[in-house]
Amino acid sequence: MRRFLLLYATQKGQAKAIAEEIHEQASDRGFSADLHCISESDKYDLNTETAPLVVVVSTTGTGDPPDTAQKFVKEIHDKTLPADFFAHLRYGLLGLGDSEYTYFCNGGRVIDKRLQELGAQHFYDTGHADDCVGLELVVEPWIAGLWMALEKHFKSSGGQEETSGVLPRASSTILRTDALKPEMLHMESHIELLRLDDSGGKESEVLEQSDTNRSHAGASIKDSEPSLVRSAPPLSQASLSIPALPPAYLQVHLRESLGQEESQESVASVDPLFQVPISKAVQLTANDAIKTTLLLELDISKTGFSYQPGDAFNVICPNSESEVQSLLQRLQLADQQEHRVFLEIKADTKKKGAVLPQHVPEGYSLQFILTWCLEIRSVPKKAFVRALADCTGDGAEKRRLQELCSKQGAADYTRFIRDAAACLLDLLLAFPSCQPPLSLLLEHLPKLQPRAYSCASSSLCHPDKLRFVFSVVEFPDQSALVLRRGVCTGWLATLAAPVLQPNTRALQVDSREDWAPKILISPRAINSFHLPSDPSAPVIMVGPGTGIAPFMGFLQHREKLQEQHPDGSFGAMWLFFGCRHKDRDYLFRDPPSGEAAGPAKYVQDNLRLHSQQLARLLLHENGYIYVCGDAKNMAKDVNDALAEIISQEAAVDTLGALRTLAALKEEKRYLQDIWS
To answer: Taking the CA of residue 542 as centre, how many other CA atoms within 13 Å lie in the half-sphere pointing to its CB?
Structure first.
């Protein structure tokens, strides 16, 4: 069978899931895919690889390749490698990103560019999938076209793995994104959607709408707007092309509990783990603020956990207890929630290479697995919706689920599931006749991911303590009747509620020792969001809202260094911050010393007010600029403001200003810690 090497670099599991989908389809297409995480360098060797290479790469919020790819990227950027080092490689790459972030699909672009610099050549055009508008818009046609490209590759090489000369690229047409929202078309990011021949795609079903159903559907929505549970013409009357039913592969056995102990440490995939008590909790905002912002202090004195300002760390968090109970009741499994779960691969499964999900531990209770192991809030992918449709008894409900996973219903899926952040429980409550088996949930629900937070303190200033700041996320559920909280922020707020102190003055109060709720944390991979090694370098910090958190650590650290070295040379520190209402959500009213600029209406407005000083610091005094906070608007607006400032003060055009910003980023003098 014709073999290719399939590598993935993932941060939260999306790239892995897509690579597994490619692996699943490969054998049906007459290919054999060797699937590995890109970090598993002992299982493959690109230096001697003669088969075509397919790579799926995600991107972190800062535009870097994921943690699993850091070692690989470092190795291929070895400057001693010759220009023909990978001349024998033929590859295709699929990059995943989010155009809400400044450096769209940059993880894939970094690897793609370097492979070409080392002589590797495409056998298939690179795809860039955008999570902002739906990864599937590019992923599905890119995978569909991959098989044709592989066919051409093997034919051009006489059916052998080894090739010579430049291989033809797979034919494709670039579809420009003029129809997308203008704000998605950031001047540094071009979103390329590949329009490929549908005939090369995954097998699907075409469902004809009968005259009876068509008439009934038309009548039922005549005077109604479409919603999650209801469509409107022309979709309600259309014949549907739906994905093939994903093959079931898990057999679940529930056994009564014998009282075994269960611990979060044993199922967490991150290492090392530290269990630490919350030593202080302070509400930084007024009670009538739009968002509640809390500061928590952790006691790390009895651990080996260490950090420096700018670092981030993971919090291991559970799902909401009430949502887990609602899910158990809806699945009619509440009376078996203490039963232990044991899995095996179905003997008659049609899934190729089926393996047990690593994030579902054997012998743990059903309640524990739903609470600590599965992301029950995740947005169901179309394949999951397709499988749920086959578990639905009511004809109208089944038809609606088929619409939502169909090619024709893509807009409704985006509007009512993806953009609405609908989760499995929402779908089960909206479609009462849907009765999925537990095995289906375990096959499709992804791993519950730890949540990352920025350190908001300096160990020089607060030895043995770690502080962090977060806003409690709140949003209505699908019914708009219940207010949901963020998975981690809601849990942390509940833990801290009994001892929450109401204002920032309480930061100086000695913490109580008669309570100590504990949480599990782990360090994040080393990043470059740190103060300059040269303390005389000027520092510009931009952090509206909770984006100010790491800069509190910066300011505390620099202030302490100045106390310890009164004769030292220290550069100026500028802090640009912002809030909606000074009287309600002004965080850290008395920050450590530094030039404080704000709050104005928007931080980018304040940057423009100080354009001459900022341009001087960045262009003539070897200054550093750090941006922390919201990626959707703020980070892009700040980037645009910086480009405008450089263009104006250095008398260069916009392209020249963007090149200057790119150079600053390359020199690690323009750093971001942003999230959506």
So the answer is: 30
